[in-house]
Amino acid sequence: MSKLPFVLLFTAMTAFFWGIYGIVLHKGTSLMELKEKTFQGEIGVSLRAFVGVGLAYFLIAVLVPVALLNRKRETGFWSVSGTVMSLFAGTVGALGALGVTLALAFKAQAIFVMPIVFGGAPVVNTLLTSYLNKSFKQIKPMFLVGMAMVALGMIGVFLNKPQPKAVDGEVALNWLAVGLSIGLAVLCWGSYGPFLHIGQSKMGGSRLRPFCCVGIAYFLIAVIIPVVLLESMAMHQTSGYRIPGMIWSILAGTCGAMGALGIILAFTYGGKPIFIMPLVFGFAPVINTIASIVEKGKF
Known about the structure:
The structure is a single chain. The chain has one domain. The protein has 10 helices and 2 strands. It has helices spanning about 5-30, 40-70, 80-105, 110-130, 140-160, 175-200, 210-230, 235-240, 245-270, 275-295; strands at about 35, 240. Strands 1-2 form a two-stranded antiparallel ribbon.
């Protein structure tokens, strides 16, 4: 019970940083160089922003933990199973971030994307946690009613989002692509917490080791693969890097990494995914909405 305040503190930390993640990433994407207003151009600037996210994870979640592990002993140990599970958690986390990135690339707004992601992810988290813990029989009817309400709310937001007036030459909103991208983010981010918790437990409760694995996975998926795609396809002709765009994208990655660290610390103090993740996904959209209103100057 004495550890509960720390669990809540680090849960709030994650909710805050993940709540502003989409807005900061959207800002970074918008400040990249869009040479041609085409589909490839929009995807190109989004992938370049995604590279910034991956670089931030590499700095915060790989270099810093490695340096700290080399300087002092930490609770826990390396294990093959823990490393594999933590890398997998980082992979689904990175793919979820890619889903958000693509949804923004397809012209969806962060104030619309993030609440849907944060609404669907806890459902996936709870179902997956129940499956892993073999506790499906403990699911009560009211929980199923709650899931149905969440699903209806997501559909309502998706179908009734206010649409700005079309601008000549602007890439039209692709609802199918946006829906698939959001679905990817919901599925992956909903799976992130349970797998990370397993990875951490298989490393003896270590904080830095699973965090490092998450950073490595992000570096591979958010830096190496996008750079290869950008240089091997025509996207390098339709988009380019800009310093302000990279700064904001790295800040977005910093928000993501700090949120990931918050989850690990909450787990360290005894928090469980079935408790932590719904709180994160419950408060993050509130932060996202408030930050969006402030960012647009309509508070």
